[in-house]
Every structure is written in C-alpha cells, then in structure tokens.
C-alpha cells in the first residue's frame, strides 16, 4: 500500500474509515482514489461483510456504479481501493437547495433517479461466470448513497449491506437498511429481491415530488406497524403532482412485491417515457453546472486542500501508516492522526438553516506534525554526508564514554562492599564492554554519582502503548431488539466488542416492536456486561384500535424510540428535549456501511 499517499479523511462509518488518497507514478502521473479501511478485523462478522462487499463491488462495472480497483486483505488490515467521486450525495444536494431558498428542480430529481435506476438494474442483473444469477439486492438504496459529481455523473455507492447469493446470511431478527425506505418484506425479515430496491426508489420519488417522506411525522413503532399490516401511504394528485408520476410512485411502493415494477429497468423506462413526453431532459453538462453552482464555495475549499496536499506529495503519509484502531464510533474526530501528521477532513457537515454551526473545512496545516506525536514521528530535516558522519562519530564517542562510566562505577561499588568471592568474580564480565573506544576517554571525576544514569534507562516506551480499552458485552431480549449506543446503532444483538476506556457518561437505548423502550446510562471505565429484557407493551383498548386509517396513526401516543425522519433530508419533528448532547454519524458523503 506504499504506492498510495493519504490526502484527507472523507468520512467514518459504523465499521470502516474512508480516506482520499493519491496514486503517484512516473512522469508526473497522479490519480485521486478512495481507500476504505475496515476499522477492526478481529470481528469476524465485520470482516465477512467487508469482504463480501469487496467481492461484489469488484464485479460491478457500470457508469452509474462506483468502480472498485483493488482489494487488500493482510494480517492486520483490510482495504478497498475505489474511484474518487467529487461531488455531494443527493441527500446533501437536497438540503443545500432548501437552505439557499431555491425551489427543488423536478427535472434534476427525475434525471438523477433515472440514472441511479440504470446502475441499480446492472447490480440486479449481475451473474456468476457460469451465468448463474447472483441475486444482488442493495437493501440501502437511499439518497445518502447516490452521489452526484460536479461533472454531472450519478453513482451508486456503499454495497456494505447488500445481499448476494455468496454473501453471509442475515441473522434472523437483524434489520439492515433504513426504515424510511424499507418495504414490508425487509422489515418483517422475509426474503428480499430486486423489487425491494424498487420500493426504496418509489420512496425517493415520493420525496422528490412532495418534499417530505411518506412517513412524515410518524414514529418508528407506527411505521413498523403500518408496514407489517401492508398499510402503505398512497400519493394522490391532490398535492399538485402529475397523475402519471403519481401512478409510477404508487406502483413502486405497493405492499405486495408482485404488484410493483418487476425490475429497476421497468421503472426507469416509465420515468424516461414521462421525461421525454414532458420534454424534461437534463444533460450531463447541465447537471454538473447545477451542482457546481449550488456548492461552488464548498467545492473551492475542498479543491484547495487537495491541491495543496498534491503539491507536497512526497511528504504525505503512506497508506502503510494506516493501522487497525479500536472501534471508536462514539467520539468521532474530524482529523485523523496518521504517522504523526494531521489529515484534513474533506467531509465537513453541512449546517441546516437553523443551526449555529458554520460549514467549513478545518483550518489546519495539512502536513504539520501532530503536537503530541511530534518528538517520535516528526520528519527530520535532510543533512549532508559530512555533517551526518560527524554526528555519528559524536554519538559513538558518547556511547563509549557511557559504557566506561558504567563499568567504572560498578567496579567502585563492588570494591566498597565487603569482599567476597562472588563479588570479585562478577567484576571481570562488566569490563568487557571497555574494548570499543577508539579515543582516550576523559578521566572520571570523583564526584560523579550513579544518579544521572537512571535517566537513560529505557522506561519511556510504555507511554507509546495503545490507549486502554474495555471489553463490552450487551445482550437484550428479545433477540430482534435494536440497540443504540450514544445514538449509534450497534451492529448486532448480542454485541461483543472492544471500545476505548473513558470516564464519560454514555447512553444505551434499546427498543423492539411490541415492547417498551429502555434507556440506561453508564461509564466505560471498566469491562462491561449488560443483560436487559424488554417488557411487552400492553395492547391498546379496542376503542382506540378501531380507527385503523393511516391518518389516525400519528394521533396515537408515540411509542418509545427515535423518529424515523431521515436526519439528512427532513427536519426532525419538534418536541420536548432533555438538552443532553447527541452524537450522530456524519453521512454527508456515504462511502461505507
């Protein structure tokens, strides 16, 4: 991996970190790439999922799917090397459009979805070398995983939770994907196929047409109940939407898979017919100009950092410096310290209109040594051969003097002790190191004491050991309960892992359909083992259950659990706040998990 030079951090996911890198070659050859590194290979489930993603991504070749160039699996690390896509996600593009006060452009939305459906169909059609279909299902086909570049390209990324015939089987009760885009069969744990992704495409179209989710204002428990009952919201032309688009959206979001479009290509054909009929065609150039105009300032800042790093390519840390670190999703940092150097974060979160935070790229000197690691890893300035020789001779002479001092002091101490055969025999071996000096050593002053020698004993290396960690085991009943630590969903239940030790207060939140939610607070200052059992939720009285219309569902008291609103596209529903800080993963640029 020494051929790749790290430029900056693009983002972090639940089990992997993503970096922008440069592949440099002879004749001034430079190519920007993306390196996705599995954070820990000790978790067999994570490693299997990561390698499944790599195998699948390496087989895909389509203009609307991110391209994978190389997969590296060594003893202590695993990498995927992919193409660099310079542009925002569709989710972020929507937020920027709202923040600038512009009206969403329907032709842009339809073009992006149409291009993405073409790439999705390619993944669905992927077959083995003998022609056997692989049965690929993305399972996370969402605006966060659709990238729109400044050149006007549309690419699907992140096949981390994709399903294929060769991939590891999903454990019963484990939900993979996003609830807001999932069809009934995915939520219920039933077999999924390409029509599962078609349902998600219907949700994306609904958002483009109405500006909000079909589940807007509903809590997770209500959504799950509606999906399990097959009670899917229906779009109507009353909202000012063209009846043809209403029909396409509703067909894609049918509760029964057999009633949906049979493939992503069939849905794309329906969209393209409408686009041609209404003359809403958008060219690649027009899309690129639209994205560049909306994100001109952010694009300029990012390019400035990248260009500055490339100019100093020889001093950039190699990808070999990437070491497997403990799982640290609880305290994400915008700066990665690799080989004693700070890497700028190129995925700064975008502030919503009401937020106080400003959108910016951290103003750091990209190649300045990190203060806490500078003594050990700072790159020395080059010196000429003569000066280097003088320095080496000086060190050699100093070493010889120290050896003589040690031998003489030991001899003096031995002579002052009570004489014994054992003491006199122990002295000669210590005199052996006196042979090396080539120059006469200065006489040893009588007042020299052994105290200074204690300073040169190598007791410091212990400070360079890795930060202490704690073993964490969390088990919740029922087995299908979803577990969140500081707002981030854990990958499995039960969960066994290693987390950084600290004295901060952390929050554990668990929930499951039909059960009362539960919250716990604790510190990670020691090994932790938790076993929790959720209480079943009592059924509502008949008088309240009778009105089973979707419109009445939001009026019910919301069950415990977080809102299903997409944090990247929709403004969370207002309500009482406990004023405690929340941590959320930055998904502005989604490359992983």
Order of helices and strands: EEEHEEHHEEHHHHHHHEEHHHEEEEEEEH
Given as residue ranges, the uncertain stretches (5+ residues, pLDDT < 50) are 166-173, 323-342, 348-384, 418-438, 444-466, 551-593
Name the CATH homologous superfamily of the domain at 90-293. Answer: Transferase(Phosphotransferase) domain 1
CATH structural architecture of the domain at 90-293: Orthogonal Bundle
- What value does the Rg take, in angstroms? 31 Å
* Biggest pleated-sheet summary: 5 strands, antiparallel
How far the N terminus sits from the C terminus, by CA atoms, comes to 22 Å
**Major sheet: arrangement of strands:** 1-2-3-5-4
Strands, total number: 16
Contiguous helical run count:
14
Q: Quote the beta fraction.
A: 15-25%
Integer average pLDDT = 72
The percent of residues in helical segments reads 25-40%
- CATH fold node name of the domain at 90-293: Transferase(Phosphotransferase), domain 1
Commentary on this structure:
There is one protein chain. With 593 residues, the chain is α+β, with helices and mostly antiparallel strands. Among the domains are: 90-293, Transferase(Phosphotransferase), domain 1; 468-541, Immunoglobulin-like, CATH 2.60.40. 30% of the residues lie in helices and 16% in strands. The chain has helices at 44-59, 90-99, 106-124, 184-187, 194-210, 220-228, 243-252, 264-277, 284-294, 296-311, 374-377, 385-416, 421-431, 542-545, and strands at 4-12, 16-25, 29-38, 68-73, 78-83, 146-148, 154-156, 336-338, 341-343, 469-477, 482-485, 488-489, 495-500, 505-511, 518-523, 528-533. Strands 1-2-3-5-4 form a 5-stranded antiparallel β-sheet. A 4-stranded antiparallel β-sheet has the order 12-11-14-15, with no helix packed on it. Strands 13-10-16 form a 3-stranded mixed β-sheet, with no helix packed on it. A hairpin with a 3-residue loop joins β2 (16-25) and β3.
């Amino acid at each position: 991996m020494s051929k790749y030079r790290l430029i900056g951090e693009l983002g972090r996911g639940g089990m992997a970190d993503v970096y922008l890198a440069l592949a440099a070659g002879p004749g001034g050859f430079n190519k920007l790439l993306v390196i996705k590194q599995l954070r820990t290979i000790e978790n067999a489930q994570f490693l299997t999922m990561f390698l499944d993603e790599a195998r699948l991504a390496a087989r895909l070749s389509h203009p609307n799917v991110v391209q994978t160039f190389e997969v590296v699996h060594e003893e202590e690390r695993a990498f995927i090397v992919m193409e660099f896509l310079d542009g925002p996600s569709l989710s972020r593009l929507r937020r920027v459009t709202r923040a600038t006060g512009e009206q969403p452009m329907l032709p842009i939305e339809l073009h992006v979805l149409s291009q993405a459906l073409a790439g999705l169909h390619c993944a669905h059609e992927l077959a083995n070398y003998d022609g056997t279909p692989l049965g690929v299902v993305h399972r996370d086909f969402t605006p966060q995983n659709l990238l729109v570049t400044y050149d006007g390209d549309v690419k699907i990324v992140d096949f981390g939770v994709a399903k294929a015939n060769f991939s590891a089987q999903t454990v019963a009760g484990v939900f993979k994907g996003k609830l807001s885009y999932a069809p009934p069969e995915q939520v219920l744990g039933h077999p999924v196929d390409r029509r599962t992704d078609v349902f998600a495409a219907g949700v994306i179209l609904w958002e483009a047409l109405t500006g909000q989710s079909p589940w807007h204002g509903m809590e997770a428990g209500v959504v799950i109940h509606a999906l399990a009952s097959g009670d899917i919201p229906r779009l109507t032309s009353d909202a000012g939407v063209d009846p043809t688009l209403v029909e396409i959206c509703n067909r894609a979001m049918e509760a029964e898979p057999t009633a949906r479009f049979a493939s992503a290509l069939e849905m794309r054909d329906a969209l393209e017919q409408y686009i041609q009929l209404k003359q809403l065609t958008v060219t690649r150039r027009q899309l690129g100009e639209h994205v560049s105009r909306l994100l001109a300032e952010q694009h300029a800042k990012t390019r400035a950092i990248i260009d500055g790093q490339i100019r100093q390519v020889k001093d950039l840390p190699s990808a070999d410096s990437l070491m497997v670190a403990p799982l640290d999703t609880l305290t994400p940092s915008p700066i990665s310290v690799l080989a004693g150097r700070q890497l700028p974060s190129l995925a700064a979160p975008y502030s919503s209109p009401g937020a106080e935070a400003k959108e910016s790229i951290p103003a750091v000197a990209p190649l300045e040594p990190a203060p806490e690691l500078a003594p050990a890893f700072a790159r020395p300035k080059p010196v000429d051969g003569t000066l280097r020789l003088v320095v080496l001779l000086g060190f050699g002479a100093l070493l010889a003097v120290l050896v003589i001092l040690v031998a003489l002091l030991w001899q003096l101490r031995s002579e002052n002790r009570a004489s014994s055969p054992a003491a006199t025999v122990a002295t000669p071996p210590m005199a052996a190191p006196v042979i090396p000096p080539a120059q006469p050593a200065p006489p040893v002053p009588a007042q020299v004491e052994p105290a200074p020698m204690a300073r040169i004993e190598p007791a410091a290396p212990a400070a360079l050991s890795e930060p202490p960690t704690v073993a964490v085991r969390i088990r919740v009943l029922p087995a299908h309960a979803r577990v969140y630590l500081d707002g981030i969903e854990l990958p499995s239940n039960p969960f066994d892992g290693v987390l950084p030790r600290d004295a901060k207060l952390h929050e554990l939140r668990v929930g499951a359909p039909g059960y009362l939610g539960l919250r716990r607070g604790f510190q990670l200052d020691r090994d932790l083992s938790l076993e929790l059992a959720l209480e079943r939720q009592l059924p509502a009285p008949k008088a309240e259950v009778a009105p089973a219309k979707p419109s009445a569902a939001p009026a019910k008291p919301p069950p415990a659990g977080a809102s299903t609103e997409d944090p990247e596209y929709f403004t969370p529903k207002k309500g009482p706040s406990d004023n405690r800080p929340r941590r959320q993963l930055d998904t502005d640029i989604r490359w992983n998990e």
